[in-house]
Design brief:
By secondary structure, this protein is of the alpha/beta class. The protein has eleven helices and twelve strands. The longest helix is centred in the N-terminal third of the chain and has 17 residues. The protein starts with a strand and ends with a helix.
Length: 324
Amino acid sequence: MKVLIVKTSSMGDVIHTFPALEDAVRNRPDIDFDWCVEEPFAAIVALHPAIGTTHKVAVRRWRKRLLDGATWREMAALRKALRASRYDLVIDAQGLLKSALVAIQAGAPIAGFDRASAREPSATLFYQRKYAVPRDLHAIERTRRLFGLALGYQPDLSALESGIVPPAGRPLGIEGKSAFLLHGTSREDKKWPVEDWVETARRLADRQFTPVVTWSNEPEQKVAEAIAKAVPKTALVAKSPLADVAAILGRSTLVIGADTGLTHLASAFGLPTVAIFLATEPGLTGPRGPFASTLLAPPGGTVTPPEVMAEAERLLVLSSKAPA
């Protein structure tokens, strides 16, 4: 049996789908899985060994260039590739109109959330198999339940495993413990102040950690360089492909991150991960992992470096006691 997973974005949403895939691999070893995802996140999908072919889409770019002939050629090539794969089932794990429109290109039956469960009820017009999954559950559990219903098994929700491991990558040459500081995020109100990152880096250096920072755009580069300038022990990683960043992240001793996709990836790797949420509610979409914790800023308040360090130390102790 061949099944196509459609979960195109964002990075956190893609990562939230891995536990459902891991359930399916264990319960349905007869199934071969492929995935359809936005092109920037193809390297993330490739982290799971059960995925055969990764089909890349560029919905965001296509929307901006609908009159461009190259756009229509890319969409036609995607449709041809999906049809040629002859899938027995497509699981739209996103529940959006855009993901449903991608799913129908495969020409196979589509399974997804029912009208009361989907994020956009209009998406369900394109589904042949619809399943009720409560909307007040965490996104990870919702997806695990959907896969179980669609593929005929009961997921063991008492355990949580992503099935991914860090990719191989160039070593940084850091001796001892490293702490990756994920300061970059998509919205200004999600960003922790630079001075708090600097203080945290200092506290980590005092505890014999090497802070690690990187960037993906010019504003993030300024923050990363400010941290490295203030705390010379910091390892400054130049802007790199996502797979390379994932390799460095996966070998970190500790991760401290804002509300961003790489923080979700760290928790999925099973690393001690402190997530700092300043403007968003983590309840149904926050990082989940054996050693992941979220610090939520109180109304009108913030999260302080001492609070972050105290939580980091708690998680490090907890992880040190876990079975190998």
